[in-house]
Amino acid sequence: MTTNQPQTLTLEELVRLALPPDTRVWCESDWRARPVNWVLSISATESARSQACDFALLLPPYPADLAAHFSQWAQIGVASVAMLGEPDDAIVTAACQAQLPLVAIPAHTPLRALERRALEFVLARDAAIEQRATQVYQQLTTLATENAGLPAMAALIGRVTGKTVLVQDKRLNILAAWFAATENAARALVEKWATNPTNLPDEFRDRKRAAQHPASLEQTLPYENRARLITPIVAQGMARGYLSLIAERGTFQTFDQLVAVKGAAACALEMAKAKAVSEAEKRVRGGFVEALLAGNLSTEEAESWAKRDRYNPAGKHTVIVVDWARKEHPSYRRLETVIHGIKRPAMLVHAREDEVIVFVRLENETGIERARLIAETIRHQTHAEFPNDPLAIGIGRATDSLIRLRDSYREARQALSLARRLASPTPLYFGELSVYRLLFLLERHPELDAFRQEMIGALIEYDRTQRTNLLETLAAYFAHKGNLTQTAEALFIHRNTLLYRMERIREISGLDLDNPETRLGVELALRAHRLLLAREES
Q1: Are 428 and 512 within 8 A, CB to CB?
Q2: Are both 383 and 506 inside the same structural domain?
Q3: Domain span at 117
Q4: pLDDT tens across 306-364, in order?
């Protein structure tokens, strides 16, 4: 059976919570866990008044033989001796030799007021610590009110706890950080470890479950005897992020746990405020995108509005349209959140009820390749979060006018439609779909199927009955412009194996691939087959 006995105040708690921030401690041994039962103001000549576990505040002036008294205080079992100002080397040496913690308090600190404050912590440790944590929470909410932001809040938490602080969003991106001097050398390691999803405690991986967790969790880091105290940042019944304190293992105290919980609550308010601002900005951006696509803006109006939304109207632009590839899928709001998380510059994101539109400002050096990179990043990031929910992505052609983004949007929509029809695992660029655009017009005409059968029907049947992949081989051959070495590498087969397959293709189909007209017809037939196969399987 356990009882809730009041805990004894430790010297570390007293120094950290009751003494001024610039207080320093000298000691050769570990002093942090020393118990403090009383706070006593004495002169150096009044050593006899001291008892075991006393925190002795030495009243100035200090005698020349002060160093000689430390061994006597150590024999009594005094918890620590504190003095005003910087001690000289002889005093520090004497304290360290006696293994008695010497506390140096800033010179102009009023000792009587300090004594009263320290006694409050000794007499009612739990209540005093709770009160101090509440004061920290009030300071944090003041910072939020003053729009100081998460970095300032993390710095305050770090200063009062002496621990490294990380504030992360739900995807573990670091929103703010404050590193203690002892942790600066390991900053890169800490950030890499903390942003790895596999290191999140099991209790916090489900964000609804994390919101119901009553307290912080302590984890061991895999290096330098470090640990972290991690607390979910909860808003509206969901973990919206995480607050972590990182320090030497075994050094987390009650105050740290309280500040972590209260700090997470304050960060939740700040994040909710930031989210409200973001939502308002999204509505403004959405208004701009909708007005632009509706053709309701002049060139001057479009450029002015773009600048207000911090989108540079100069140069070339294009549109990416993103949609879920299947009928059953997560919400578009969640898709929009993933895209916003990419944080690429020169992007404007707007979610509709059935798609997400991305305006992209292109760079002269990379052109449309920038849009391809962003589209691939969207696909990769979404797959990481929703591995069973594929995307369809279309990219429109570039334009040097904002008001002509309407045309790029329509092209991106057509490319997206084809990407969905073909179940394309990669984003499709409208500028490369000219042949498919023609084939779309013939999709339901019987001549298209007849043409496919005439050109590659024998290969289709052979692959079906023999379970071979000659059509895939032929498509790779054309994709690499007939280069046998590159084709073999793309198919992960030996060059001799490719030569054998190409010979079988000639034997089965009767095609003369050396004839330019035949090659053109076969390439068209392969594209027609892909289009018709997607329709047949839908």
Answers
A1: no
A2: no
A3: 9-123
A4: 888 788 999 999 999 999 998 899 988 889 888 988 866 688 888 888 999 999 999 87
β-bridge partners, 174: 168
Question: DSSP H helical segments within 312-427, as ranges?
Answer: 332-340, 368-385, 405-421
249, HSE (Cβ side, Cα atoms, 13 Å): 9
Residue 308 belongs to some domain of the structure:
yes
Is the domain of 180 the same as that of 89? no
Asked whether residue 505 is assigned to any structural domain, the reply reads yes
- How far apart CA 198 and CA 172 sit, in angstroms, is 11
CATH classification at residue 131: 3.30.450.40
Q: Judging by DSSP bridges, how do beta strands 174-178 and 80-84 pair with one another?
A: unpaired
pTM over 0.85: no
- Angle of helix 299-308 relative to helix 254-294, nearest 10 degrees, comes to 180
pLDDT digits (tens, 9 = 90+) for 479-512: 888 899 999 998 999 999 999 999 999 999 998 9
The answer to whether residues 494 and 465 belong to one domain is yes
Residue 272 three-state SS: helix
Structure tokens at 228: 């972290």
Pick the last residue of a domain from 123, 139, 169: 123
The Cα–Cα gap between 305 and 300 comes to 9
Q: Which residues are within 8 A (CB) of 291 and not within 5 positions of it... i.e. 6 or more apart?
A: 297, 305
